[in-house]
Amino acid sequence: MSAEAHGHDHGHDHEHEHHHKDTFITKYIFSIDHKMIAKQYLITGIVMGVIGIAMSLLFRMQLAWPEESFKIFNVLLGDKFAPDGVMANDIYLALVTIHGTIMVFFVLTAGLSGTFSNLLIPLQIGARDMASGFMNMISYWLFFISAVVMLSSLFVEAGPASAGWTIYPPLSALPQAIPGSGAGMTLWLVSMAIFIASSLMGSLNYIVTVINLRTKGMSMTRLPLTIWTFFVTAIIGVISFPVLLSAALLLIFDRSFGTSFFLSDIYIAGEVLHYQGGSPVLFEHLFWFLGHPEVYIVILPAMGLVSEIMATNSRKPIFGYRAMIMSVLAIAFLSTIVWGHHMFISGMNPFLGSVFTFTTLLIAIPSAVKAFNWITTLWKGNLQFNPAMLFSIGMVSTFITGGLTGIILGDSTLDINVHDTYFVIAHFHLVMGISALYGMFAGIYHWFPKMYGRMLNKNLGYIHFWVTAVCAYGVFFPMHFIGLAGLPRRYYTNTNFPLFDDLQNVNVLITTFALVGGAFQLVFLYNFFSSIFYGKKAVQNPWKSTTLEWTTPVEHIHGNWPGEIPHVYRWPYDYSNPNHDVDFVPQNVPMKEGEEVLHH
Amino acid sequence: MTSLLVIIVLVLLAVALWQLTKIFDLTQVGSSSDDSQVASDNDNNIQGYIMFGFLAFIYIFTIYGLLKWGNLALHTPASEHGILVDSLMNITWVLIFTVQVITQGLLYWFSFKNRGHKDRKALFFADSNKLEAIWSIIPSVVLACLILYGLYAWNNIMFVDKDEDVVEIELYAQQFKWTARYAGNDNVLGKANVRLIEGINTLGVDMSDPNSQDDIVVTELHIPKGKKVHFKMRSQDVLHSAYMPHFRAQMNCVPGMVTEFAFVPTYTTAEYRELPFMIEKVANINKLRAEKSVELVAKGGTALDPYTFDYLLLCNKICGASHYNMQMKVVVDTPEDYKKWLSEKTTLAQDIKAAAAAEKPAEGVEGAAVDTAAKVKDTVKAVIDTVKAAVAKVAMK
């Protein structure tokens, strides 16, 4: 492995650059260094995030001021989709669809997991690089290609995919049913197939690396919780993503080769189609077999990051380290047997509804354990309110608020009436959207010094967090009420229902909060990109953390550590250990003579 | 345009704030060490207080929301099982609010209380089996109760007793409208398949099936109060979802299969309109509509009609461009009115016969003449349209 060759490096960056003939291309583009790949994932994720969030702002404006003319619509969407600045209903559905796809897959799966798994797995377990640096590089570039394909679908004649991010057939299978199901949907499916290949390569790499490349002394029960969550996330990904791939392939067959996996008895545009014997419900099963674990693929890494950041900034061990691991494992297991709660009213046998209600509500137990353990971690701590810590606390807060309404949606009886209303949107945006975003922001603020050797501006971080926090609640809290009023999602406008006229003011309020919150993300973008070049230089261990990544030199070198890889002698959470005078003891510090292990 | 302005203002605001932080940074130049971007005691103090403030924000916003928007939520259920659903919902809400208030309170209170200080040392408190047992067991017990209640209700709602005396109605979904088919005197719906769609028989009913002979097809749904209505749903093209929020009823319509849902309506449309909460709601909506009308008229548009409440069947599964306007009026009648309404309807068989009879003479010479006339009319119309479009184009230039 190339990493071994660099073992003799001594961390002097100038010397380093002379030693290895890294061209611009091998260093910044086709890099096999996990730290560079992590940064590539992050930047791509941020770009996709900007696009995804901008889309949501556009359709939020349409919802608040339906069919009103906005110059910006015309500028961004063009004459075809926004003639005279009025958003067309086709493009509304397309925006909703692509927003969901981008945020779930490209930002919160690849952007979050890809960035931090790549950055932290080798650094925190004490490895010189990923098990296969080359596969890692391919993984990123497939992700990049899939992002390009997805974005290119925005420019096809009939418009991008617009059947919702869940792309239920027959709507997604028949161009007669909606224009976006033509070339736009083809590109969507191709993009997702490439994305899944990328994700699988990444996941396999993470799993192998965690199992095989841990440094001496780094037993599984000494792994930081970040690594545990990345590891488990990768396993869920490997189990469930192939199922989505199969669903996508079968859908391609139905669309292009005349098979009938998901279609049957269809009469559209004045003619009977030849499809016979398939079932859209089958697609729903396949889709949600990934789709549900997917939300844990999104949230588990955020949970790991938050656990780590909370312990560091509370100057306390994470409370219940083993319970945290057990709950991650329990959530991961349960996540694969609850997909049916998206389908209570899909027409499947109601008995299945009972089973899925049972398994779904069980998830509340490990989730509750995690929430209470985080809260207890704060108790009698010495909290350092760095921006990363604020986002971590914010994540726990939105995870609880959003998670609690899951008790309603997971209960088949109650789901009947709130299914596919704005109540669902409010629920999942809080529990997985905002929470995972907070986790990602927390991770960025915390590990930025590790990635770029510089610090993010903390005051801009504070502004970013507090405005975002207020706006996130401002957007999604009122949304529960319009959902409870029975307002269905994915309606271009509600003006055809006088019944919903009294919800319009709430929609205006939501959009206002969304616009303000969206605008303040510019503060983050500015902070991020300017700090890469002009930020204050970081010290080696700015947060006084115990984990191994902070024992590497600030300037990146291939192979991470000059000289030998550190050995590990203790668990990752020796903060404020009463046996020591300093309030943190890094993992590579040997136990003192006679020092007792103070935790289980 | 206004939003664009709003956005610009926000951007400027952001710039201003950034400038402020710059100034703030400059005031600390003297002390600029490498850890200047790590939270200081001063930061911890300020952020700790903001944490406390944010807790207040959450509580106040929740109370404000409940007072201001609480009455937007669906009120009195209009079906028998709806009462069961709503009581489970209310129990769950009590639980949710209790947990929410306690956990958010603890989270932000601990944040405020334990804000960092350089002289402080955190308590090394790694785990406690007792505590963890408490917060594993309590949720387990509470959830077990919820699950049992939920499953009891679910089974009651979803499994229709086959021997029960029910009214059979088919709900038929297509882009972008609903149609209903009544089973007629025999209370058995005739077989149907989209391959049999022809002319006026838009539901593809199999007219060779004896059960189909008395089926009635209508575009406005009437159901009798106090009787169990058993809906069988079909779709001819894509997934739709038959959503009747006031009855707490929803079921997807899936091409290629028949799905079902049953409920007993408990208020006629007239009775539901007279419920106090509904009178208030409709008055409020009409106030809003009147305000909007004034605005519209000022712009040269037409005023909105005042609103009277009707039960609705909405499509609640994305189904294409006009998904947002796929609805059908639902009327709950007294059993007598319902019988009367239904008896006035013609059966599908009669409709088909009538259509065939109407078509026959059209096949003769007369029909040809009519056809020609219609064609000429169409051509003239097309020419006019083309000219109009051309004029419009020139005018645009």
Description of the molecule:
The complex is a heterodimer of chains A (600) and B (397). Chain A has 19 helices and two strands. Chain A is mainly α and 600 residues long. Chain A has a single domain (2-551), classed as Cytochrome c oxidase-like, subunit I domain (Cytochrome C Oxidase, Chain A), CATH 1.20.210.10. Chain A has a two-stranded antiparallel ribbon. In chain A, helix 8 packs antiparallel against helix 9. The two termini of chain A are 36 Å apart. In chain B, strand 1 (166-174) and strand 2 form a beta hairpin. Chain B has a domain at 166-350: Sandwich (Immunoglobulin-like), CATH 2.60.40. The radius of gyration of chain B is 32 Å and the shape is extended. In chain B, helix 2 packs antiparallel against helix 3 (80-113) and helix 3 (80-113) runs antiparallel to helix 4 (129-158). Chain B starts with a helix and ends with a helix. Chain B has helices at residues 2-27, 41-69, 80-113, 129-158, 269-273, 276-298, 335-343, 348-362, 365-396; strands spanning 166-174, 177-182, 216-218, 221-224, 228-235, 240-244, 249-253, 259-263, 311-315, 327-333. The model of chain B has no long low-confidence stretch (mean pLDDT 88). Helices cover 51% and strands 14% of the residues of chain B.
